[in-house]
UniProtKB/TrEMBL annotation:
Keywords from the named record: Cell membrane, Membrane, Transmembrane, Transmembrane helix, Transport
Name of the featured protein: Guanidinium exporter
InterPro entries named in the record: EmrE-like, Small_drug/metabolite_transptr, Small_multidrug_res
Record field: transmembrane: 27-46, 58-78, 84-104
Membrane topology: Multi-pass membrane protein
Family, as annotated: Belongs to the drug/metabolite transporter (DMT) superfamily. Small multidrug resistance (SMR) (TC 2.A.7.1) family. Gdx/SugE subfamily.
PANTHER family hit by this protein: GUANIDINIUM EXPORTER, SMR FAMILY PROTON-DEPENDENT DRUG EFFLUX TRANSPORTER SUGE
Domain of life: Bacteria
Subcellular location: Cell membrane
Gene3D superfamilies given in the database record: 1.10.3730.20
Keyword Transport: yes
Native source organism of the sequence: Massilia aerilata
Cell membrane among keywords: yes
Length: 105
């Protein structure tokens, strides 16, 4: 169950990062509210997941989901460029997430 909560927390992190970008420096109220609500939900689920997962594993996986999710959202929705080095960096992040998951007891 902790892994599912952590996954959802990571997805909420992607949502708040995207809505923060759309808030234009917190000048658009709706996107600003979405950002704050998703941040609270993401941090809340992360804290519950950390009850049974090691800190290093939970935090690394949470930030990794957010990083890869933001990378994908940036490409798909914001027209950000896909470069070889960016893709290699994303592959390394995913590799690290897999290793963290495999090393968790």
């Amino acid at each position: 169950m902790a892994w599912i909560l952590l996954l959802v927390a990571g997805l909420f992190e992607v949502v708040w990062a995207y809505s923060m970008k759309l808030s234009n420096g917190f000048t658009h109220l709706i996107y600003s509210l979405i950002t704050v609500v998703m941040m609270m939900a993401s941090f809340g689920l992360l804290s519950v997941a950390m009850r049974s997962l090691p800190l290093g594993t939970a935090y690394t996986v949470w930030t990794g989901i957010g990083a890869i999710g933001a990378f994908i959202v940036g490409i798909v929705f914001l027209g950000e460029q896909i470069g070889l080095m960016r893709v290699c960096a994303a592959v390394l992040i995913v590799s690290g997430l897999i290793l963290m998951k495999l090393s968790a007891h």
